[in-house]
Amino acid sequence: MIELRGISKVYRQGGREVSALQDVSLRVDPGEVFGVLGQSGAGKSTLIRCVNLLERPTQGRVRVNGKELLSLNPDELRLARQGIGMIFQHFNLFSSQTVAANVAYPLEVAGLPREQIRARVAELLSLVGLSDKADTYPSRLSGGQKQRVGIARALAPRPRILLSDEATSSLDPETTRSVLALLRDLNRQLGLTILLITHQMEVVKAICDSVAVLEQGRLVEQGKVVELLSRPGSHLHGLCYPPFTTGESAVLRGGQRVELSLSGEHSTRPILSTLARRFDVDAHLLEGSLERVGEARVGRLLFELTGAPDAVSQALAFLREQGLTSEEAAHAW
C-alpha cells in the first residue's frame, strides 16, 4: 500500500522558489495498478520519486508498506527500499555488463551467495522471456528487451511495489503493448502493486485500475479508470474523448440529440433498438465508439431521438432509470 498525504515539493533555484508539487494526496491499494497521468512539467516524476524518497518532499507524509518513510533512519530506509522496485524510461543498464550481470547487480549489492544469485537471475530472465539473452550485452538488445531487463533487475530483491517512471514512452506502439502486457501479468502472478507515471492516455486505458491526473503540480482528479471514463463531466473523460464533431447538417429529421456514455453490461445491450420498440421513437446514430479498457468495455454514442414529444421524454427518462449517463444536447430543429 502507498499513501501520500499533503505532498508538496519546492525547489530553490538562483534565489527563487519553484513549486513542483502542491498538496498532493493519493492512495494506492495493495495489488492495484495505479497510473499518474499528466503532461511534461506536471510533476509526475517528482511525485513518483517521493514514494521511495529519491526526492524528499518539502512537506507531507509518505507511507509505504505500513511504514512512515520520512521517519526512518538511513539504515531503515535502505531496508524499506528493498521492497520498492523501480524501472526507468531510459533503462539505466550497465553497457559493459551482460544481461545476467545487470539483473544480478542488486543481489550482489545485498551480499547474497553466488549460487542464490545465479538461480534468481535465471528465474527472472525466464519470467520476462529473456532466458536466451543472459550472456548478451545491452547494445545488442532492442528497446523492448532492454526494458524487460530493467524490469527483471527491479524485481530481483522480491519487492512488493514496482514504480514505473515513463517506462514505455520511448518505445514503439507494438513494443509498448508487449511491455504493458508483461507488467499486467506480473501484477497478477506476483501480486505486485504497480504505480506508474505516463503522459500517454493509451497506457492508462490498457493497464491501470485507478488513475490520478496531475496538472502543474496539482492533483485535479483521481478514481477508478472505468468510472471516470464513463462520466462525461470528469477530467479524464474530457482528455480521452474530445467533443463529437458531427454538425447539424448530419441530422436526419431534427429532434433531440443525446450523448450516452456506456460501460460494463450496458455496453453490450441493444439500446437503440430497445428505445425504438418500447417507446415508438426513432434513434438515428450520428457518431460513436466502443473500446476495451482493461477488463471492461467503455464507449459513448451520439444519436438523435425523433418522435412524439411525450415518447421522446419517456425514452430519456428510461435511459436515466437504467443508470446510463444521458447528456441531452440542444434540440436540432
From TrEMBL:
Presence of keyword Membrane: yes
GO biological process, alphabetically ordered: amino acid transport
GO cellular component: plasma membrane
GO MF terms, alphabetically ordered: ATP binding; ATP hydrolysis activity
Residue span(s) of domain ABC transporter: 2-241
Keyword Ligase in annotation: no
Keywords of this entry: Amino-acid transport, ATP-binding, Cell membrane, Membrane, Nucleotide-binding, Translocase, Transport
Task performed by this protein: Part of the ABC transporter FtsEX involved in cellular division. Important for assembly or stability of the septal ring.
PANTHER family: AMINO ACID IMPORT ATP-BINDING PROTEIN, METHIONINE IMPORT ATP-BINDING PROTEIN METN
The family this protein is said to belong to: Belongs to the ABC transporter superfamily.
Protein name: Cell division ATP-binding protein FtsE
Lineage of origin: Bacteria, Pseudomonadati, Myxococcota, Myxococcia, Myxococcales
